[in-house]
Amino acid sequence: MRLLHTSDWHLGRSFHRVNMLDAQAAFIGHLVSTVRERGVDAVVVAGDVYDRAVPPLAAVELFDDALHRLADLGAPTVMISGNHDSARRLGVGAGLIDRAGIHLRTDPAACDRPVILADAHGDVAFYGLPYLEPALVKDEFGVAKAGHEAVIGAAMDRVRADLATRAPGTRSVVLAHAFVSGGTISDSERDITVGGVAAVPSEVFDGVDYVALGHLHGSQTLGTRVRYSGSPLPYSFSEADHRKTMWLVDIGPEGEIEAERVDCPVPRALARIRGTLDELLEDPALDRHETAWVEATLTDALRPDDPMARLCARFPHTLSLVFDPDRAPDDPDVSYAQRLKGRSDEQIADDFVVHVRGAGPDEAERDVLRSAFDAVRTQDTLREVAR
Predict the structure, then answer these.
(1) Which of 1, 48, 80, 148 could join 84 in a cystine, given CB atoms 3.0 to 4.6 angstroms apart?
(2) SS3 track for the chain
(3) CB atoms closer than 10 angstroms to residue 174
């Protein structure tokens, strides 16, 4: 069976101030063409279909168009909700849409009820694990403490239990939206940390033939059977070096896996350039970036006059301007933001405690801090769900 694995469409999202709807529509067209031209048997979309719980109308219309075009091709499609989606809104009408071959899996309690598709070698069971917010689903899965590894592990126990009841030789695919250990993050993914921990080990998915992951925006292989497709479009300059693709996955009669990356259309190249303003305006080596979306980091000791307008004269698609003067690390003018760069909320809180009393928090105090941060993140999630 041939699958096309994609995720993280983020329909409705912009790139800085650039509306990405046309680029997203071009991607949908490319996906449909790939399904038709490469003989795809099923499409799997591993979450974050939309960029927010209440997407703009234009994004909903594009999603509707995508569903109609995939249904017209007769290629079954299995989708799960991600942490950016409203599971309830995305799942409206799922029972009816099932009849058209579009299978929306947004209910955590239904994770062990697979979509069964068949090829010449027998059945393939597709299990959808929508994004599992630990604080919201821990009771459903009967775990004592809310945590990503605990709830995903419990969901996978249900999957394996159901798979054990299926006919011998039934192959299996799991769709999951999670941060799995070994994955590389970018700046455009929303933080899902709970208890200071966001990642779950890939071993939690043992026992199935293929795991189609979503959440991280870079295409990645964590094992022969565990992959992220990544987002089809860039959503931050941290993705400047990404190759945006989908995975074309062939599952053999014994569950053997072969995978090929299929490139997605690139609306415009991304470039991150750094130097003094004069260097950026005069360096001939930067000619190749003149048509790219540009993030420029200026290292001038003093902010030059009208830098954005001057940069745009050479790089008309400059979208982001960052000031990072070259200074010694002990220079008192090094910015507070620079000192905090790359540090987690918990690390910053630890530093504050050290600053105030001369010693860091003990383990009990760290538990209190983690609980406070988790409570804030949970409240943010609940507000998003309620919107």
Answers:
(1) 48
(2) CEEEEECCCCECCEECCEECHHHHHHHHHHHHHHHHHCCCCEEEEECCCECCCCCCHHHHHHHHHHHHHHHHHCCCEEEECCCCCCHHHHCCCHHHHHCCCEEEECCHHHCCCCEEEEECCEEEEEEEECCCCHHHHHHHHCCCCCCHHHHHHHHHHHHHHHHCCCCCCCEEEEEEECEECCCCCCCCCCCCCECCECEECHHHHCCCCEEEEECCCCCEEEECCEEECCCCCCCCHHHCCCCCEEEEEEECCCCCEEEEEEECCCCCCEEEEEECHHHHHHCHHHHHHCCCEEEEEECCCCCCCCHHHHHHHHCCCEEEEEECCCCCCCCCCCCHHHHHCCCCHHHHHHHHHHHHHCCCCCHHHHHHHHHHHHHHHHHHHHHHHHC
(3) 29
> How far is Cα 237 from Cα 300, in angstroms, rounded to an integer?
21
Q: Considering only the top CATH level, what class is 2-263?
A: alpha beta
Q: What residue spans define the domains of the chain?
A: 2-263, 270-326, 345-386
Backbone phi, then psi, for 184, in 5-degree steps?
Answer: -105, 125
| pLDDT (0 to 100) of residue 95 | 81
Q: Which two tokens stand for residue 237?
A: 């300059």
pLDDT at residue number 11? 97
> What whole-number distance in Å separates Cα of residue 108 and Cα of residue 111?
5
pLDDT at 348: 81
pLDDT tens digit string along 271-309?
999 999 999 999 999 999 999 999 999 999 999 999 999
- The strand pairing partners of 100, in sequence order, are none
Render pLDDT for 138-151 as a digit per residue (tens, 0 to 9): 999 999 888 899 99
Low-confidence ranges of the chain (pLDDT < 70): 188-198, 327-342, 344, 355-356, 358, 367, 370-371, 373-387
Residues 136, 87: contact at Cβ < 8 Å? Answer: no
CA gap 216, 184 in Å, rounded: 7
Q: State how far the Cα of 233 lies from the Cα of 218, in Å rounded to an integer.
A: 10
What pLDDT score does 183 carry? 77
